[in-house]
Every structure is written in structure tokens, then in C-alpha cells.
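Annotators were shown the component list below and the corresponding predicted structure, then asked to write short factual statements about the assembly.
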Amino acid sequence: MSDILAVRNLRKNFPKVQAVDGVSFEVTEGSCFGLLGPNGAGKSTTVEMLEGILQPSSGEILYRGEPLGPRYRERVGIQFQTTALQDFLTVKENLRFFRALYEQGPSIEELVEICHLGEFMDRDSRKLSGGQRQRLLLAIALVNDPDLIFLDEPTTGLDPQARRNFWELVQSIKARGKTIVLTTHYMEEAYLLCDEIAIMDHGHIIARGTPKRLLAEHFNDSVLEIPLAELNGHAAMLGFTAHGEAAELMTADVNGSVRKLLDAGVSLAQLKIRPRTLEDLFIRLTGREMRA
Amino acid sequence: MTLARSLEFMRDTSAMSWNLIVPVLLVAGMAMIFSGPGQPLFKAAVIAPVGATLDAKLHPFLATPHVQFYAETSVAEALPKVQRHRIDMLLDLTTTPGKYWINEESPKGTTLERVLAGTPGPRLERETASGEQIRYVDWVVPGVLGMNIMFSCLFGIGYVIVRYRKSGYLKRLNATPIRAIEFICAQLLSRLALIMLITVAVYIGTNLVLHFRMEGSYFNLFLIALVGAIAMIAMGLTIAARVTSEELAGGLLNVISSPMMVVSGVFFSMDGSPKILQMAAKIFPLTHMLDAARAVMLDGAGFTQIAPQLAILGAMAVGFLAIGASLFKWTQD
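Structure shown to annotators:
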């Protein structure tokens, strides 16, 4: 597969801050590329430059090997984190309006079917639930049958069920051969949907690769989690670290650690053993401190 | 809550500075318009002998307080102003005996005539203004319709664009192939259609009740309203081209619309006011729209007579659109 998007040494300076500082990566056609990072890491600025909305201070963005030209907007679809639509317009009217802005694209009926919008076509778009609204915004991002789709934190604020429904929708769109660039705060979402991820912090990419490869590169252990109270005051002696009411132990020797717990008379009834996740990686790379 | 709202307002530097500037501008504007000793109750034009000054030596009536006397050069030029309620009385003191004209439909004119009758000095002959007397309502209807068009154009467009920008809707549109000029023209057409429909409906409705004067062609009147509305929508678009705060937009729109309403002659004529003010009025599209509309409605002016005003309004529309499109900003950043 060839690269649909190539980013070279991208920088963006604002008057008081360098939001993006020398970012480079490629996005393979037909893949889902995830851009992760804490708030203020520079990922939204990076994505806005990729979308063609923000001019880079320096660096290069190539779409199919060419700099972004006037036709670029005809070929990309964008779902912003928060998008206002015109008041009083129904779902159908919104879709018709955005569809009319492009020369080519699927029919309204096709979009409705892809994004499961059939039930509320005549509903005022302001009266949609969070999940329904995100599906409408995704449908709007698809009105021009784009090769490349940007999804900026599309499931933020959705309930778990709506989030999972949205993930299925994104997977079905990816199955149609579309390339997706996704930004998200949900590590589970990134792990499930993304073929490749890049973690940004302070305007730089600090890790990049497939989720599995990154986990393998950074961890060779598992996590033991148990309520702190179950350790009978032996947390430090057993090597556990307290996090609120829970205690965690990262260990490559799971059997040995469990044996030590049994020897210390700790009940294993509430012990959880899990492999490392992207969230662990994210915390390790970006730290635990509060961000804006 | 009060503190939070006050902090929000004070930290919105554009809105805050505007709220400080507006009162200063308003005071300066009002001082310019209403400067001098007390505002006169009546306005009378005087045709005086060459070299004479308009004072009691010429005629004791000219010393009447609360009447603004100003010089005109010919009866032919000044008489239509009496007929159109732009002035309350016309005096010709170049003849013996002198003459005066009033509009019998004008309460102020007839009151001033009683004042004249009670003034000592040479008697003046009453002349009847030739042609049909024009009621005040005939004169004011174009002004009120024009004012409605102005408010609808400026605020209807200005606020909406700023709201679109604040809500991120413009940012979403910026991600599509649509260009700024296309977006602006779409807004213009939408608002124009609405305004023209409303104006036609208001015209028909009020005419059923008031039966006001319409001497000229309806097509010409429609054309004036159309071109005038385009010019004012374009003006609203220019104001909203970069603004991101509704408060600032409101301030800017008020600072344009308030003086425009005063000096463009919506409710009263600017005849006799300082020349500089009359010249300043020419920068507003409403002035040209009302001049042309009154010419058509009251005098039956044809296309050729209103062509200069149409040309000015057209040029304003093109100019404002060009400025608006070049300044236009999709996002708040």
C-alpha cells in the first residue's frame, strides 16, 4: 500500500507558543492512523494543518505525493470534535446542503444507509442524541466520497453504547477502503480502530508504530491489580504501588508475584491480572501530571 | 454570577474597548448634530434680497425665537420642500409685499402662520402652494420602509455571521470547497429575498390603511429597494467579516445604524442643518435610497432621474462586497 499522506518536519508557531515542532509521519492508504496525546500536545493543530484549515509555519504535507492544492478539499472528509450546524434544519436538509457543496459523492439515501440515519431524517438536527448527532456529522464528512477522512475525537461525550456503535460504523467505513486519521483520548478506541498510532507531547511525536509493536517495545510485563485493603498493609513489602484505593504491581514474573501474595495470606478473590494497554504506554510516555 | 459575567465582559477586550469608544463617539456625534443654542421647533426658508442678512431688520418675524430661518435662492427650488414637509414655511422677502407659503396639511406650518400673523411689521401675502398638498405620512413612509430595510440588512446579516463564526459553523464550511465570496453571496441572496418580500408586504399592508402617495413607477421603486438593500447587506457583511464577539458586532452595527437613521432623513429633513452634516449623510446608503424613493413616490421621477442614486448604491454594494470578501475570516483564531 502507498502513502496517501506524508508529513515532513511540520511546524506551527503561534505568538506565544510553538504548538507543533518538527512532526513527520506517513499515513498508508486504507489504514486508520491514530494521533494521541494529552491536551495541549499539539495534535489538534497538527490535524488542522493536515485538513488544510491551518497554514503550517514551515514543513510539508503531501497528499498522494503532491502538496495540498485547491482540489484537496474535494477529496477529504472532516468530522470536527464540535461542529455547529444551521439551526432549524432537519437531518435530511443538512445532508442535502452539504452534499450540494461537492460535485461528486454518494446519494443521500446511500449516506443514510451507511450511517444508520433513516429513523430521524426529518428531525431537527438540534434534537438528536449525542450518538445520532455524531453519525450525522460522520455522514456529512462522507458526502463527497472522500479518500481520506479526519475524525477529531468523534466519540468524546458519548455513552459507552453509542461509542461502540460509532466504532462499528468507523470499521465499516474503513472496510470500504477509506483512509482514516483519528484523534482520540480513548486508548481502547485507538487500540481497536487504529492500524498505526503516533503519540504526541509538547509538539513532538514521541512514539509511533502499530499498537501491538509499541506495547511490545515498551513493556515485557503484566499488571496485577488488587484493592489496597486486601494487602493487609504489606503493599510496599510486596512491591505494590498504591493508586487511590487500588494497588498495582508491574511484573514480568506473574506466577512468582502471585505466589508471594499467597504466602503473605492475601486473598486473590479480587486480584486482576491484565496485559499492558495503550493507556499504560500513554501514561508512561506523557506522565501523570495534570494537563490543561 | 454578576462577578463572573463582569469578568467575562471585561476580558473580552474587543467588546470592552468598543463599549468605551461608543459613548465618546455618540457624544461627539450628538454634539455635532445638535450643537448651538437650543433646537428650533420650526424650520423656515427665506428668499432674501442679495446681500441682506436674515435678521429682524429685514422683517421682525425673522427674530422669532425657536424658528430656524435659513436662506434659499429661488421659490421654484424651495417650494417643493414646503409641499414635502421638509420645511414648515417659505418666505419670499424680495417682492413688495413679501409672500409666504405653507403646506395646509402641516400642523407646524399652520401654527407658524399664526405666529407670523401676530408679528408686527410689513404684512406678507399668503400664497397657496401649487399642486397637490403632500401629507406628512406620504413623506415619512419611504423613510420608515427604508429604516426597516436598513435594520433588517445590517443586524440580520451581521449577528448571524458572528454567531456562525463563534459556533464553529463557518469553520466547518471552511473545510468544504466553498469560497468566501460564494458564502457571502449566498447570505446576501437569502437575506435579500426575505427583505424584499417583507417590504412589499408592509408596503401593500400600510397602503391599504394609509393610502399614501405613489406618483412614479412601481418597478423603479422596487429597483431602488433592491439595490439599496444589497448595498446595506454588503455593509453588514463587511462589518461582520472578522468580528468574533456579538457585543462588538452589536456596538459596530449601532454606531453605523444610529447616525444613518438620524442624518439620512428618515423622520425629518436635513435641510438647513450644517453643510458638513449634509455631506456626511451622503456616505450612507440609506440617504441615497430615501432620496430616490421619495423622488419616485412623491414626484413621479423616472429611471433617468434616479439613475445617479442607483449608481451610487450599486457602487457601494460592489465596494462593500469586495472589502467584505477580502477581510472575511472563517474562524475565531
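Statements collected:
1. Chain A has ten helices and 14 strands.
2. The CA atoms of residues 150 and 159 of chain A lie 21 Å apart.
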